[in-house]
UniProtKB/TrEMBL annotation:
NCBIfam families: sigma70-ECF (TIGR02937). Residues 29-95 form the RNA polymerase sigma-70 region domain. Gene3D superfamilies: 1.10.1740.10, Winged helix-like DNA-binding domain superfamily/Winged helix DNA-binding domain. PANTHER family: RNA POLYMERASE ECF-TYPE SIGMA FACTO, RNA POLYMERASE SIGMA FACTOR SIGZ. This is Sigma-70 family RNA polymerase sigma factor. InterPro entries: RNA_pol_sigma-70-like (IPR039425), RNA_pol_sigma-70_dom (IPR014284), RNA_pol_sigma70_r2 (IPR007627), RNA_pol_sigma_r2 (IPR013325), RNA_pol_sigma_r3/r4-like (IPR013324), WH-like_DNA-bd_sf (IPR036388). Belongs to the sigma-70 factor family. ECF subfamily. It comes from the Bacteria. Keywords: Sigma factor, Transcription, Transcription regulation. The keyword Transcription applies. Pfam families: Sigma70_r2. It comes from Streptomyces chlorus.
Length: 193
């Protein structure tokens, strides 16, 4: 196994602790990833209560099925995000299908469009929060504060070439949010679950 395929020690240790049934491990996992799970669920569902339910469901699933994650699958963070995304999309589809069954407005195609749109938005959020801080800082300056690359360079204290590089890489990463299937990404994060 190559070094880059070796999961981080924390991920392996956490998986082992969960498999042993350590409640403290679940608490640590919740503290570390609950905001990520809730944010992804809220982005897909657009509803605070539904996002709370998905968050509870994700951590209940992890507790009830500790062997569902294997460190060889990639980072624990990515696996948890994929699980949250999949459960949120499942809930969105179920709610939309129920509404259509009871004579709600729209069609099955409208529902799938809504699911795809929510999935892309959730993937973009995940990408932004997972990207290295220097890339995220450059994008935030350019987007939220409407800085060009020269102003971004000055604000970050880097060269203009470095600012351009960071912006370009950040935008390239964000562009993958529209991919229907990103190589190497777990189901639900790289595409619509």
């Amino acid at each position: 196994m190559t070094q880059r395929n070796v999961p981080p020690r924390w991920d392996r240790t956490m998986q082992q602790r969960l498999a042993r049934g350590e409640a403290a491990a679940l608490g640590e996992l919740y503290d570390r990833f609950a905001s990520l799970v809730h944010g992804l669920a809220h982005r897909v569902l657009g509803d605070e209560d539904a996002a709370d339910t998905v968050t509870r469901d994700v951590f209940a699933h992890i507790w009830e099925h500790p062997d569902a994650y294997g460190p060889q699958q990639g980072p624990l963070r990515t696996w948890i995000a994929a699980l949250a995304h999949g459960l949120a999309v499942e809930r969105l589809r179920a709610a939309g299908t129920a509404a259509l069954t009871h004579g709600g407005a729209g069609s099955a195609e409208d529902l799938e469009h809504q699911v795809r749109h929510a999935s892309v938005a959730a993937r973009a959020d995940y990408i932004v929060h997972a990207m290295p801080v220097p890339l995220r800082a450059a994008l935030e300056l350019a987007y939220f504060q409407r800085r060009d690359y020269q102003q971004t360079a000055a604000d970050l204290g880097v060269t203009e070439d470095e600012a351009r590089r960071r912006l370009r890489l950040g935008l390239q990463l964000l562009a993958t949010a529209h991919d229907t299937e990103t190589p190497g990404a777990p189901p639900g994060i790289g595409g619509v679950a």
